[in-house]
Design a protein that fits this description.
8-stranded antiparallel sheet, Urate Oxidase, oxidoreductase, alpha+beta, 2 domains, 5 helices, single chain
Length: 279
Amino acid sequence: YGKNTIKFLRLHREGKKHFVKEVEVCAHLRLTSAQEYLEGDNSLVIPTDTIKNIVLVLAKKNGIPSLEQFAIDICNHFMTTFCQVAYVKTYVQEVPWQRLHEDGVPHIHSFICVPDGIRFCEAEQCRNGPLIVFAGIKDLKLMKTTQSGFEGFYKNEHTTLPERHDRILCGELFCKWSYGECKDFDFDCIWKKIRECILEAFAGPPDCGEYSPSYQKTVNSIQMLVLSRVPQVQIIEAVLNNTFYNVVDMKNLGLTNDKEVLVPVETPYGSCSCTLGRK
C-alpha cells in the first residue's frame, strides 16, 4: 500500500539565481505482517498521509540533488526508521522545466516547460537486501521524414500493406534501464548521456541519417548503443509506439502530392518492445 501522485515544486535559491525541481512521487510499502488485512489490526500501519508528509519533509531537508538520489533517500528513510517495513518502492518523475534564455542569456528565475521527454526513476529495497535503482525517459516523441522503410515482411492472403522503402518513421518512446545495485553514480550525467545515445541511434549522423528497416531494428539500435557506451546500465527496456502517416490523395483536386501533405493514423497504432541485457 502507499501514496500516489505526491506532487510538489522544490525551489532552491543561490543568491538571486533560482533552481526548480517539480516532481511527482509514488511511495509504496510492504509490512512484515499482514494483520491489518487479516485481522483489522492497524497498529503497524503507517498512514498514507504520513508517507506523503515524510516525502515533503525529505524534500525540504535534503533537496533533490537528482531524481535517483531523492528516491534513494526515501527508501533509506523508511528502512531505517520503521522496523515493520519489509519492502519499499519509490517512483519519481520530473516535470520538464528548463531555464529560460533571452538573447542567449540564462534568466535567473524564469523557466519554460519543454515537452521533450519526461525523466523518471524507481528505487526499491527489501530489508536485508540490496537497493536497486532504475531510471528512464517516457513520452519522448521522435520523427524522421526519410531513411526508413519496411520491406520483405511475411505475406499471406490477409496482407494488404504495401512494401515501402521510403517512409516517415515516427513514434513515442518509453525507455527504462537498470543500474543494478546502487553505487555512487553521477545519475544526472548518466541520464543525459543515455538520452544522447537514444537520439543518435534514432536519427543517425546529422548530415545523412541512417536507414531504419523496421521499428524493431531502431529499438535494438538504441539499446545496443546505450549498452556499448554506458557501462553502468545492466538491462534496458524500450517500447516504441508507432504513429503512421498516410499521403493525402489530391488527384481529384488537380494536384500531385509528392509526400508533402500527410495525415496521421491515430488508431490503431503499432507498438514494438524489447528488453536487452548484458550476459
